Amino acid sequence: PLQQWVAPLLSCWQAVGIVNTHQDALTLHHQLQGQQSLLSLDGFWLGTNWQLNLNLDESAARQQGILQQQLRQQQLKQQLNQLTNEITPLLEQKQQLTAEI
Question: From the record, what ranges are coiled-coil (predicted)?
Answer without folding.
Answer: 66-100
